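RECORD CONTENTS
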Amino acid sequence: MISKLRLLLPLLAFTFFTLNGCNNDNTTEKVINVGFVPSENMQEVTKNAQPLAEMLSKAVGKEVKTFIATDYTGIVEAFRAGKLDIAFLTPAAYVMANNEAGVKVVLKAQRHGNDFFYSAIITRKDSGINKLEDFKDKTFSFGDTLSTSGNIFPKKMFLDKGIDPKEAFKHVIYSGGHDATVLAVFNKKVDGGAVFSNDTKGHDGAWTQFLKPEEASQIKAIAYSDPIPADNVCVSKDLDPEIEKKLTQAFIDVGKDKVGQKLIQKLYRIDSFVPATDKDYESVKIAIKVAGIDLPNELANKKKK
């Protein structure tokens, strides 16, 4: 009996340590999946996402993989399916992801020392349009239907002035992006459009980024929205709190690192990150309601395309 037990002990010990080792491997080797929202320059996103993932991997001690969505809803769907741990999101897309997948916002972007931006209503300087009321019976371009500064806040701006975007314009297009809206306005395809701006002085907006200086000088902004809380970094509701803490700090550290700063600048023109909470995006939730945007319906429509 004792001799049989002696033979079994090594086998039991091997089994115990093998199983124990497997359990530890599953914990320590968990892959972190990071999502990136679409940008006007997808080549830059694709090129710089991997180096950023490698920086995050070194910081948290885990493999980090990238997922680059073709649109905002791709990130929301990936969160809902449990395929993402952390991701970049626009303000409105965050509200949708929070509603649909329970994601938590942890950081927001800073640009030029500000953690907010604006929606700007632009037109050509030779258009004769100087105020929102002048757009009656004119043509207009919004951006993506889920764009915070390209659709939601500008619609609220018109409605706050008693102008119904559904009835006021002669014709409306949805360009799908800020760059496309800027080009449509510059090339006189439409009389005006809604795009983002990082200030209210006309020095740093979509038209100055996507047009040559001599072209941008022919564009003017006739109205700006209230400040909009910046785009953000969100985490899955199922992410381990310790990993969440490490990733959050890793993103903050990236904004303090020279190499990291260059990467996030090229990705989304971000300078750094600061802590954020759901309360910071209350104004976005209000704008969505005022603008009459049905987020679940928008998500369903985009899934059909």
